[in-house]
Amino acid sequence: MRQILSIFVLTMILISCNNTDKKAKEYTQHQTEKLNEKVDGYFSALHTIGKFNGVVFASKNDTLIINKVYNLNQDKKSTTYVTTESQFDIHSVSKLMAHYLIEKFEIEGKIKKSESIKKFIPDFPDGDKITIEMLLNHTSGLPRNLEGVEEDNINLSSEQIVEYAKKQKLLFEPGTEQQYSNVAYELVYFVIQEVSNQSFAQCLADNVFQPLEMKNSGAHFYLKEDNLKKLAKNHEKDDGKIMQVDNVLPDELKTARIFSTASDLNKFLNHVKNEPFASLLQNESNVIEKSGGSDGIRVEIYTNLEYNYNFIFLANYEEVPFQKTVEDFAKILENKPYDVPKELNRKSIKLSAEILNGYEGTYSFADMGNLELTFKVEHENLVVYQDGEQIATLKAESENTFFDDPKEPESFEFVENENDSFNVQMGWKGVKLKGIKK
Question: Which of 274, 297, 298, 427 is buried most, with the most CB atoms less than 10 Å from its CB?
């Protein structure tokens, strides 16, 4: 009798477990379908208003949410047309891959981030003050881009880039401030070249693409094997028309001209979200992410370790409202409130001369190569000048926010600083850039 009861209890437990597993799977499927609906709805809305062309990928709890393409022109012969297998130029996303390689080399005992670059470039000015870690964290003091180059950047070898980097004036004492620097990462690529005895691109192929089976990733330069098959062509808007832009431009450096696909980039994210790299690469929000872009191209890869999701979007049309799209994508996958994109029709208001006069002055944008914009009050309007030439007459949307085109999201937002004056935040091509009043 006791044996029969034991068998009965065991049977009931197994039935209960099976029912629980079934309900869990049904719940997971339901959650996946809801997230797919939200993500697809968001990017479909962006696509409908002409702000997105490209590929969207997302996964959560190791379950695929979406891997979908959005084409503004369904004609396969169109230059904007892409598929989920299209290879996109990823630009500064290569910086995250370089950071990964440095961490990998340190684990293997080949390098220390605390070492100065003097070890690799003995005659680099103030090289004893600049560590590899400073290069990685944009605290080296080196400027954003190379200045004083007498030929097209694209023709420079890695050694020539280093020679030009030696001539750059430091913006601040190394380690005391932070300023985004492409020059610093060119030195990171050079260090990787010195440690591995091969080009950065080849090192990346051998240490990342091959072991992770990123079979559709590669580089435009410095690779032994060429696997470029389906390159997504870049596009921008010019006088209201979508125009193709060359993927490789004369003012770009060729050291890290990497291309990849959404599914390949997801493999990279799945690798770096595991230890020991997760702790080394994540920010204070438990996120590993990197954006990239140039004329006609915008890219984002993002993994949240706390909520366990990845997302990637690759846009070969630069009109995507980039920063807001990144923020909203994260909100969707975290089940937080977000706004579905819609056509803009901004309304202007009239401000007093006293308010407008407070915004007059010249503002410098460090993240745009120290671009300077001057704001003047003329005929009761705030007017913007660049190099002495008027570029826009702004309309006030609120007491501190101004726009040019009511159909576009680009804005100038003035923010009071500690000196009882103002700085300005410029929304440009979907990215927010800070301007400091001189």
Answer: 298
391 located within any domain: yes
Question: What is the maximum span of the chain, computed from C-alpha positions, in angstroms?
Answer: 99
Q: Please, which residues have CB within 8 angstroms of residue 154's CB and are 6 or more apart in sequence?
A: 248, 249, 250, 251, 252, 253, 254
**Residue segments in the chain with a per-residue pLDDT below the cut of 70:** 1-27
Whether residue 16 is contained in a domain is answered as no
Q: Are 423 and 435 in contact (CB under 8 A)?
A: yes
Residues 329 and 360 in one domain: no
Overall domain count for the chain = 2
Q: What angle do CA 172, 367, 184 make, to 5 degrees?
A: 55
CA distance 424 to 363: 7
Q: Please give the structure tokens belonging to residue 302.
A: 């993002």
Q: What is the pTM of this model?
A: 0.88
pLDDT reported for residue 24: 44
| Tens of pLDDT, residues 254-277 | 999 999 999 999 999 999 999 999
Residue 29 lies in a domain: no
The C-alpha atoms of residue 92 and residue 132 are separated, in whole angstroms, by 18
Summarised one tens digit per residue, pLDDT across range 338-357 is 999 999 889 999 999 999 99
One domain for residues 101 and 235: yes
